[in-house]
Structures are given as C-alpha cells and as structure tokens.
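User: Thanks for the earlier help. One more: Dipeptidyl aminopeptidase/acylaminoacyl peptidase. Can you show the sequence and predicted structure together?

Assistant: Of course, both are below.
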Amino acid sequence: MTALTAELVVDGRAPRTPALAPDGRLLSYVLATTSRTGDHLDTELWLVDLVGGGSRRVTAGTATESLPRWSGDSGTLFFLSDHAERGVPQVHRFALADGTVTALTSWRAGILDHLPLAGPGPVALLAEDEPTEQDARRARDRDDAVVAGEREPRARLRLLDPRTGRITTPDVFGDRHVVELRQRPDGGPLAVLTRAGADNDHGPRTGWLHLFDPVTGTTEELGPVEVDARLPAWWPAPDGWHLGYIALTPPGLQAGTAVFDLALSDRVTRNRTADLPMCPTELCQTGAAALVVFADGLNTTLARLDPAGLTTLSRHPGRLDELTATSGGEQIAVLAGGRYEPVDVHFGPSAGPLRKLTDTRPEWNGITFGTQQPLAYRAADGLDLDGLLVLPVGQTAPDGPFPLVTIVHGGPYDRYADRCQLFWFPSAQWLAAAGYAVFLPNPRGGQGHGHRFAASVAGQVGRQEWTDILTGIDLLVAQGVADPDRLGIAGWSHGGFMSAWAVGQTERFRAALVGAGVVDWGMLAATGENGQFEAALGGSTGWSGIGPHPHDAVSPISFAGRIRTPVLILHGAEDTNVPLGQAVYLHRALRHFGVEHEFVIYPREGHSIRERNHQLDVLRRTRAWFDRWLRP
C-alpha cells in the first residue's frame, strides 16, 4: 500500500490534446507536468502507433509544446513550441518520413493557434501583430501608457507557406478578433468565428461567423452567432453543407449550452439539442456527420448528429474530454479516467468500447482510495439531483458517522462527474485519506441536466442551489454517514462563493475554506474579466441605479456580520477572473467582526494555482485546517 502524499498529487504528469491522424494509424498527444517549478511549463510531444503498437517521444521536454495538428494526408504533424524563446510559441513541423523537427515560424508576437489546410497548401495561423519599431521605442522610453480602446491586441488570420516560411496577412474581418477556424472537410472555405475584441467581458456577446476562401482570399458574412460560440464544425446533409457550433442558449449568459446548426442553403439556424436533459460540451468535425459529447448527469454520452436527429453511439462513466476522430468518425480518441484511475488517453470505435493507450501515473497504482459512490436525491421542491459521496479510506457507511466536508464545484456551469477526485485544489480523495467523508453535490445551475437546470440560478445564486446542497447534507446526517457536529465546507471559484455564502447563512459548519471565491457580485461585475457573465449571476451591477441592488442580497459580504465559522481564505495574487480584492474584502470584514480566519495569498498565481510549492501548500493547509476544527 502506498501512502498518499501531497507530492504524489502534484508531481505527476498528465496527457493533453490527443490528435488522431485522419487515417487512424497514428495518434499524438502532449504530456505535461501537473505543476510548474519555473516560469514556464515543460511538456513533451508523444506519438503512438495504433497499428503496429508502441510509442515514442518526439520532443525533448525542454520547452512548452502544444496543439498538435495533422496534415490531411496524415504524413506531417504540426505543433507549437517555444523552444527558441520561452513564452513565444512558434509553429514546428514533424515529418514522419525522416523523423525531423523543423521550426517554420519566427513571428515575434508568437503564434496562438494553427490549422493545416487541405492539400499541400498553407497553414492558417492565429497571431497578434508583431511589435513595431515605434512600440519598441515606447518600451525603451517607458512611454507605455495604456489607453483603453487603443492598440488593443487582436488575433488575426494569417497564412503560412510551409515551404518558404513566408507569412501573409489577408485584409479581412476589419479590426475584429479571430477566435477559431475550421476548414470544410472537402478542402473548401474556412469557417471563421470572430468577436469585436479580445476582451472577455465584452466579446462573448459580439460573435460573428464568416467564410474565408484561402485560394481567392474572398470572404462571406454569415451574420451574428449566439453568445460564447465556439468549436465550429462542418457536416454534409441532403440539402448541402451545414455549419454548427456550441454556444449558450438564449437569452442569458448563465444558461445551458446547445448545438446550433446553420444550414447554408437557407441560412436558418436551428437549436439541435433543445429540451434535452443533458448538455453538449464538445462538437467534433469528421468527414461525415459531426460527433457530439454530452455531459449526462454524472456520466457522458457520445452521439452523432445525423440529418434526422441525434444518434446515440455510446455511453461512458465519468467524463470524456478533448475528443478527436478519424476522417470518417469511426475511431475516436479522448481523455478519460475512472473512479480510482487518473486521466489517460483512450482509443477505440465511436460505438465503444475504448482501450487505455497511456499509463501516465503509475505511481498511483499502490494507493488505496476511499470508496466513491453516486448519490441520487431530491431537492426540497422535488427536483432530481445527483452528486458523489466519498467515504474515508478503509471505511464503509455503517462505520459512520464521520466528519463530513462538502466541496462545491466551480462554474456554476460545471459538474462533478463519476471520475477520480484527486487534484491540487480541495478534493475528495485527499481528505478521504485523512479520515473524512466528502460530499460532492451537483446543485442546480450546473452542467449535465439541460438548459433549464443550468439557467435557474441566473440572478439567484445562493438561493435554491444552496438549499440543494443543504438537503444533501441533511440526507447524509439522517443516514448516519455525517456527524452533524463535525461539518465543514469548501470550494474554489464559484465553490468558494458557496462556501462563503454558507457560513453567512448558518452556524452548522465548524470550518470553511474559501478558495478564489466571490464575496461581492457587484464588485466582481465591475472588476472581473467576465463582468457581464458575473452580472448575470448576481442579478445587477453597481451602476444599476441607487441601491440596495439585487446583487447585494446574494453577496456573502452582506452577511459577514453573521459569520461565526472559522474561515481559511486562499487566493492567487494575479487572479483576473476573481480578482484578489474579493479575498481582501472578506478578510477585512472577518477581521472587523473578530472571526477566526487565515488569509493566504499566492504570489504570481492566477485563478488556478500552478507552481509546485504553492500546490503543495494548498493541499497541506487544507487538511491541517479541517484537522484543527473537525478533528481536534
């Protein structure tokens, strides 16, 4: 038996972005460390022979490699690497014929994304403008005042000739920010998604869809798209070509996602997944029908988008992520794991079953995990809910009651899936190894139960989603699993909000952890990078007239005077999603009211904690905090 340590959690490696060759003979993927020790993440590019067996490393692991993309003839693999200058990725080419790796670009601004086009033609790039001599002079002279709306970065469409290395920039789309590209499977035009700018607050509402012909350089405007459109995909149908994407369902920003289908024959857009009790997460283009991944409760459904409707191909426990398929869609590769197994690359027919191709965390093989089981129950208003219960290692439910920590997921448009729950942030198996039972609820507002379930919390965060969580805790107390006198609550991001909200509503919890949490929705709408989205959750903004405002009633800071529970506050100093000021606000309020708390700031970190020592600190501090208050 291997003892679970913080080092075993953060020192491993995990696969990313699998890419199947169109002919299905080879697969590439990126292998990345789960934590970072320096300023940059070192990754490796791997190649798997799906016919003859075996795998080999293509790059040395001394740079950040990412986004492998195959040529249409499956003979060349393009990818990004910052080997020449760290933090500035360039396009590289790996030729299967002779095994050589060649750098194709030296664009001073770096390359954001790339797409090899059909035939021996160019590679489409997304890249910002290179700095000018005037920019360099301003930087030297420190004449670098930032004026809102001026010289804002834009990703533009560019074309790379891989034979000469020459990059051209077509004069298309005006000053719009290009988000994604996808070429029609027959080598026709590119579908191009753009936004008014790169600003996350403003951009998602300003999406537009275009066609671009790389041969003639001409464009065609297809019009606006639904909010936060992404993952464009083409497919043929009896009435001609269709072009689809995943986007938020109107009218709100806090809403379930849907697959939208634009028939180019009549220019009519249809919602192809309306009223389904599950949520599309990925749309994968093939040469035939598109494939759709659905979050389906605690598990995942894979379907094919046929002209007459959706055809379910297979169902899988837990999650499927980063779907890639052969040109005909018969074979797929995904990232998947199990209840007690980490995420690895899996491969097989789209109808299943899938086999595991990689074993990236062999050091976990000797770990004994706490028993994980699905939990189904009903909310106070009768709504069907689900979640997970993880018991202390070596214990069964009749051995209870146990100290129980409830960990709320982020989002809120996210979910707990029935997969291994062990991460650098507060996670179930880390606490189960220390003797805790852990409840992982999926309250309304989350993913996996359709649009209405997700949209129900817009402007009402902390209301019914809180009672959904409380009902689950009460059930576990009634079943003798949870000790009512030893309850804790934790969460990161929106889960941090729910943790801060909980301790302002009740004194039942003996300890709480607020990680990168929201405490004032009005302030977040004004300062967070996703302001419009946060305003939709909170229900109003500070400029909505003279208060009190609706967001005041759902902001934890409004209830800080009621808090008696000891609180651990963890936050990244450079967080732009939920800025550090949120944590400072809670810290000052708790200090004002004399509430026991700890406030920890992680330098150089954003919304997620990436540095190894900081991840270790989060794990150890989390367990020590709950040990102090729930296991004195």
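User: Great, one quick takeaway?

Assistant: The chain has eleven helices and 36 strands.
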